[in-house]
Structure formats: C-alpha cells, structure tokens
Amino acid sequence: MKFNLLTTILFLCGLTVGYGQETTRDKVITNACMIGVGPCQSLDTYLSPEHYRGTALRFLSHTQRGRDSVQSYREIMHEGSIATLDNRSGNGGELAGYYRFQYGWQRHLLQRPLGNGFLTLNAGVHLDAHIGFLYNTRGSNNPAQAQLSLQAAPVGEATYRLSLGNRPVLFRYEVGIPVVGVMFSPAFGQSYYEIFTQGNYDHNVAPTWVGNAPSLWHMATVDLQLGKTSLRMGYWGDYRQSSVNQIKAHNYAHLFMVGIVRKFRIQTLRHP
Questions:
Q1: pLDDT at 4
Q2: Burial (CB count <10 Å: 0-12, 13-18, 19+), residue 268
Q3: Are 236 and 255 a contacting pair, CB within 8 Å?
Q4: CB 174 within 8 Å of CB 156
Q5: By C-alpha distance, which of 57, 108, 33 is closest to 263?
Q6: Per DSSP, what are the bridge partners of residue 258?
Q7: Which residues pair with 182 in a beta bridge?
Q8: Greatest CA separation found in the chain?
Q9: Per-residue confidence (pLDDT) for residue 264, from 0 to 100
Q10: Tens digit of each residue's pLDDT, the chain (272 residues)
Q11: SS (H, E, C) the chain
C-alpha cells in the first residue's frame, strides 16, 4: 500500500516537473497591405513596335512568417496591377493587367547594432508565378497577348531599425533578380488560333534566364509606428524584360507605395 502511494506521488511529481519545463515559442507574422500608383512603360512587338506609356495602379500584400528562435522565415507576396497606356501620337491605347504570386524563404545573415540602431541582412530565394494580359485597342488579327511565366529569383533584404524621439522607425530595402524559369510566348506572326485550335506548337513554352529575360524588382520603404500598426511608405521599381521567339517585350514601372503594417505574435507550447 505504501509502495503504491509512493509510486503515485513520484508519478505526479514527474508530471508537474514536465509541465513546469514547457516552453513557449513565438510565431511572428508581419503583414503589409499597400497600394501604389506611378508611371509605367510597355513594349510588346507581337502587338506593336511602338512604345506605350501610361499610369499603373498596383496592390501588394506582403507577409513574412517566422519565429523568434529561428534564423529563417517564409515570405509570401500577392501582387495585382492594372495599367492604361497610350502611344506617342495618342491615337492608340493599351490595357494591361496581371496577378503575381511569390513564395520564398530567407535567412538572417547578419544581425548587429550599428550606430543608434540595429542592422539586419537577409538572403534567400523566391518562386515567382505571373499571369497577365496586354490588350491593344488598335489591334486587328492579334489584338491581345497572354502573359504566363514561372521563375526562380535570388532575393536579398536589409533592414535598419532605430528610434526617432520615442517613435520606432524601420528602414527596409528588398531586391529580387529572376535568373531562370519558363514562359509562354507565341512565335512572331503566330496566332493564338494556330496554337490552341490547330495545335501548331512552335516552342511556345520557352526557357528564360538572365540572358534572354534580364529583370529586376526592388522596394525601399520606411515604417512609422502608429499605435499597434505602422504606416509604410516607399518606392517600388519593377523592370521586366524578355526576348523570346523573336518577340521583344518589356514592362517598366516606378510606383509610390503607401499602406499599413500589422504584426501578430502567436505563442505555442513546446514540450522539452
């Protein structure tokens, strides 16, 4: 009887010690929702040899998911854009739109105090999926062009956090350079009717790399904390180019972005 009672007490003490040694891990989610507007330029020789210029309106959702105790984090970006453009003579127009999804991973390379603030350098890779269209209002046989691509892009990020007065401020710069992937493209002079109705395939799924599709996007922002949220303002530069199947195309955009940033912290229990 005494042995059973002692065994029970030791077992309960073991449970108490086990639960007392539970630790918490903080999952940190930072989400920024931004809108931007600015000048853009487009060229697609499948539709026209003319350069078109106009204004782009863009929405960006940028989410980072990580843990305080882990040196890496995931990054998810949803991007939508619509633009109206015109040629030099003003007698023709284009309408462009796209949706882009990026999923990536970054790792902290450097974290150290610098001056009155704290510097962080990160690097990783993104998978970039793009679907869009370009419609030429003056087109006849081929008035529209579809845009489909999947690319891998090394990504780098630098942040510098400091306080101005009693207000935390975060400066952030991120850049990505697509280096390899695939894209859909008709051959020059080939109609979509030939591709999808007659089945005349002509290398319409083409490989891309920095030699035939040199592209870059970068973003510089500043976050000003306002209570539990932050106001984010900055610049977004997007330069996409390709020369595939004898068709040259580019899309350039310079946008002023503004939005809000919210940070969530989720605690989870972890047993030893």
A1: 52
A2: exposed
A3: yes
A4: yes
A5: 33
A6: 35, 233
A7: 150, 207
A8: 101
A9: 85
A10: 444 543 443 344 443 333 444 444 578 899 999 999 999 999 999 998 999 999 999 999 999 998 877 889 999 999 999 999 998 887 778 999 999 999 999 999 999 999 889 999 999 999 999 999 999 887 666 689 999 999 999 999 999 999 888 889 999 999 999 999 999 999 998 888 888 888 888 889 999 999 999 999 999 999 998 888 999 999 999 999 999 999 999 999 999 999 999 988 876 655 55
A11: CHHHHHHHHHHHHHHHHHHHCCEEEEEEEEEEEEEEEEEEEEEECCCEEEEEEEEEEEEEEEEEEEECCCCEEEEEEEEEEEEEEECCCCCCEEEEEEEEEEEEEEEEEEEEEECCEEEEEEEEEEEEEEEEEEEECCCCCCCEEEEEEEEEEEEEEEEEEEEECCEEEEEEEEEECCCEEEEECCCCCCCHHHHHCCCCCCCCEEEEECCCCCCEEEEEEEEEEECCEEEEEEEEEEEEEEEECCEEEEEEEEEEEEEEEEEEEEEEEECC
Please choose, from the candidates 80, 37, 82, 77, the residue with its C-alpha nearest in 3D space to the C-alpha of residue 61.
77
Instruction: List Cβ neighbours of 209 (8 Å cut-off, separation of 6 or more).
Output: 179, 180, 181
The residue type found at 189 is G
- Looking up tokens 């599709």, which residue turns up? 213
Residue with tokens 């309408």: 95
